[in-house]
Design goal:
single chain; Rossmann fold; 4 domains; 18 helices; 18 strands; 43% helix
């Protein structure tokens, strides 16, 4: 993962009043290249912590100056708290429960073997690694949380996110590739009451069918070839928080049945295991497919569809929010200039015309890539041209309609008239698009620039009017000529 270096365990503290136990653990841990400190009492342990941080603590339950639980309570308030493994001579159920309730990660009973310590170390390392990866992803999520746009469809989307974010409802996020479905999922997580809990993301399309069940639910040691150790699955890691099933439509029918059970019962078994594990997880899912069609074809379970589709959200394609293109392009240019240490001259008029005219089949992701590439190639402080982005702006006098623009009339038949020319009263030939432009200007003038009223006057939708304004680069206050 770019930008992330995960050091699961490094510094370990051993707290025990028995010299032979301290020495035995210290030698075993140093042999594994851990940095090890020891203490014979709670007071000594406090001094060690005052001198530096520890990732893991082996802590005796009973010490000369107090119970080990007191130490757990103190370190549990630290921002970067260590994992604590209790050492106890009493292995009763009551003692184990007491250790766990006090905040212990695990426990070992005296006398213990080197193998037991090795298993505890491995389990602690995997847990810390998962925690640190989750923290990194959550920080990245917060850094990229803003949904850019002022178009009505984006304003409505943000409102729906705020409404559903505060609940625990399962959300299905639909949209074409590159529209920003994961960004919407991030925003739902950050507005929820689980924002300080794990946010685990699973790309269902990127994991092979043979491994995805293990990724979801974990596996027991020896459950299949290569399963040399027990492993927690993504649902178990997300317990108390949120899981994102990215491209959920790519899950096989067999696994869909098991996923349905998790959504209904909030429980599952690891692969190769028979112990039922209960979890409290909020589920978000994304798809770029029409799942109802997939259901009709027998490719997706109908009951799972309705279980996931509790609160559907549709992320609009960029061609339906053309008014946001300029805002997005400037946002990306500013970001990449900062990231790459570039001095740009903004976009030329031809470049912005090209951006507005392009249909953006790759949506926001395509726009982002085009802007980043152009920012890197552009001369310092020189405006970016349309040619540099690989886009060609339509000539101002052209009678052809740019592909991004909607038709003035909402009737498909008008599309055939886009290149038609009509004679004026003085015999001159007037392109239809010029007449269209004049009609829009007249309507805006009559309604004092009110787009909604102008659209009603022209008998077209407000969306069509917005697209045409972007196409002709018109301003509401521009006088008719």
């Amino acid at each position: 993962m770019v930008g992330l270096k995960v050091m699961a365990l490094d510094r370990i503290l051993v707290v025990d009043d028995t010299p032979i136990i301290r020495k035995t653990l210290e030698e075993q841990l140093r042999g594994k290249r851990y940095a090890v400190s020891t203490a014979a009492s709670l007071a000594e342990a406090e001094k060690r912590f005052a001198a530096g941080h520890f990732d893991l603590v082996f802590l005796d339950m009973e010490l000369p100056d107090g119970n080990g639980k007191l130490f757990i309570e103190r370190v549990s308030h630290l921002e970067d708290k260590p994992l604590v493994v209790m050492i106890t001579a009493n292995g009763s159920v009551e003692t184990v429960v007491e250790c766990m309730r006090s905040g212990a990660f695990d426990f070992v009973q005296k006398p213990f073997s080197k193998m037991q310590i090795d298993l505890v170390l491995k389990k602690a390392a995997e847990f810390q690694r998962a925690v640190k990866v989750t923290d990194y992803l959550n920080r990245a999520t917060i850094a990229n949380r803003e949904i850019i746009g002022k178009s009505p469809v984006i304003v409505q989307l943000r409102d729906l996110i705020n409404r559903v974010g505060r609940t625990n409802a399962t959300v299905m996020i639909c949209g074409e590739n590159g529209t920003g479905k994961e960004l919407v999922a991030n925003e739902i997580f950050l507005t929820s009451n689980r924002s300080n809990k794990p946010f685990i993301k699973v790309n269902c399309a990127a994991i092979s069918e043979a491994l995805i069940e293990s990724e979801f639910f974990g596996h027991e040691k020896g459950s299949f070839t290569g399963a040399t150790d027990q492993r927690d699955g993504r649902f178990e890691l997300a317990d108390g928080g949120t899981i994102l099933l990215d491209e959920v439509s790519e899950i096989s029918l067999g696994l869909q049945a098991k996923l349905l059970r998790v959504l209904q019962e909030r429980e599952f078994e690891r692969v190769g295991g028979n112990k039922t594990i209960k979890v409290d997880v909020r589920v978000l899912a994304t798809t770029n497919r029409d799942l109802l069609k997939a259901v009709a074809k027998g490719e997706f379970r109908e009951d799972l569809y309705y279980r996931l589709n509790v609160f559907p959200l549709s992320v609009p394609p960029l061609r339906d929010r053309v008014g946001d293109v300029e805002l997005l392009a400037n946002h990306f240019l500013e970001r990449f200039a900062k990231e790459h240490g570039l001095k740009t001259g903004g976009f030329s008029e031809s470049a912005m015309c090209g951006l507005l005219a392009h249909r953006w089949p790759g949506n926001v992701r395509e726009l982002q890539n085009v802007v980043e590439r152009a920012a890197i190639l552009a001369e310092e402080n020189v405006p970016i041209s349309a040619e540099l982005m690989g886009l060609v702006a339509p000539p101002a006098s052209s009678s052809a309609t740019p592909p991004v623009a909607a038709k003035v009339s909402d009737q498909p038949a008008v599309e055939e008239l886009e290149s038609v020319t009509l004679p004026s009263s003085n015999g001159a030939v007037i392109p239809l698009h010029e007449m269209e432009k004049q009609a829009i200007l007249e309507a805006l003038k009559k309604t004092d620039g009110n787009r909604t009223h102008a659209a009603e006057l022209l008998q077209i939708s407000i969306r069509t009017l917005r697209n045409k304004l972007a196409e002709y680069r018109l301003q509401e206050a521009e006088p008719s000529t």
